[in-house]
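Fold sample X.
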Amino acid sequence: MKIAFIGLGNMGGGMAANLVKAGHEVRAFDLSADALDTARENGCTPCTSVAEAVDGVEAVVSMLPNGQIVLSAYTADVIGNAPKDAILIDCSTIDVATAREVSSQAAKAGYAMVDAPVSGGIAAAAGGTLTFMVGGTDDAFGRAETVLNAMGKAVIHAGDAGNGQAAKICNNMLLAIHMTGTCETFAMAEKLGLDPQTFYNIASVSSGQNWSMTSYCPVPGVGPQSPADNDYKGGFATALMLKDLRLAMEAAETANAPVPMGARAASLYEDFAGAGNGQLDFSAILKTF
């Protein structure tokens, strides 16, 4: 399949490479010359514009920084230049309203489109083990699934347009809540005289067990290897968690959904990032306690 890939950053570069590994012909575009050079090394064909990349393709995949850029890229460069029978797949994490607006604009122009944000970090993007949460019609999902399977371990249809984004921000709000809870609990346990490893041995097999503890423990030297064992380098940056929490707070306000725990987690990450910790892994929030 001939696929255009727009946005070759930390996530997109690995995703595009996996499409090549799966046997697809990938036409790639990014504003960064270095990213295009890496894409070439990974077997992609670099293009000088979005319009050039989408010419004659069967699918368009994008991984872009924010909703405004997504809206601009699709309305100005993808729609009208890509063939009408191409499936449009936006994997960016953006606000629900913009995702639905872009999908609506695509539909009006005769295109099928899905929003397909991901769960999993840079390593999962490179390893082809992402989880995709997909919003769109049944037909659009079916057409996108083949492309997404080449980049992930799970592809789940969340419902109509925008529901992929809704699932993503709800999931990451929950992640922030149980990570901050895990951190404050480990800090309290240590202050009460419990050895962190001993507390882990107890809590990891008790009712307090959760993913942030047993798969991504924020305490260095405790549990499976995690960014905490590398001075909180790599993994999922605090700045990216904060981006998702801001989107969650915006969505909660729009939906009139009370989210007191999500709001508290967002406040903690606002303060932590504001103190210059945006590039540290989000589990470094342990330092707050």
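Fold sample Y, listed below.
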Amino acid sequence: MIKHYLQITKPKIILGNIVSITSGFFLAAQKNINYSLLILLLIAMSAIIASSCILNNIIDRDIDKNMQRTATRVLVTKCITLKRSFIFAIILSTLGFSILITIVNRLTIILAILGFFIYVIIYSMYLKRTSTYSTLIGSISGAIPPVIGYCTVSNHFDLAASILYTIFSVWQIPHFYTIAILYFKEYQNVSIPAFPIKYGIMLTKHHIILHIIIFILSTFLLTLMNFTSYKFLFIVETINSYWLFIALQGYFITKKENIKWAKKMFSLSVFVITSLNIMILIDSIL
């Protein structure tokens, strides 16, 4: 039973966000890390993100049962009832926001509420099922966690916060568009208007490459504006350049090779954002 309650919170998503929150926190704090504040922030945000993931599972349960990759999710297999899942989500969100209100500034609380609202209400309940551009709106909530980490320390939405937001926002487009290519037929079968389905895989590749270029330029700005070092820039841009190189290979493959290419692009996107977070952490304390 505990395993099922853990699964419904999507722990991989929570872990990824914990890392990005921490990198934003370290970027703002540099070497003056308030570890007590950081731990409380991570506990609060983990609870809030877990709650949003549960609510997303509840909303998507009719879609999930008709997709092979999601057919074994907890609510589809009815390992946990809908009522218990909803109560669990309410408890987690109440806990998370209660902690958050007591430890952080008003700006951070507003950002957390905004991210939660956009992901659960605007994206999950409406745009995912109706708009080709749902990923663009969803990327707003996905880019907020590192900004929350940063603003918890700085209490300002300044240039560094803007750059962080841009980096994490544009990263999500190639990441989720490659997922849409990978599961093209499944999305098509459940009538999800994903970008590749509406506009085709070739135009999707154009958008993937465009956003990777913007991502590269945005990460460059962190060093250009003296928020990170040149060592950071060299390592990060080397990895980013390889990502772009693989993306460009998508123009020179057959239709049969699109799935293999998309799998590689998906794995690379995870490696890229993980590497970026780790490099921000290391660069901030050295």
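Sample Y note: The two ends are 43 Å apart (CA to CA).
Also: The mean pLDDT is 96.
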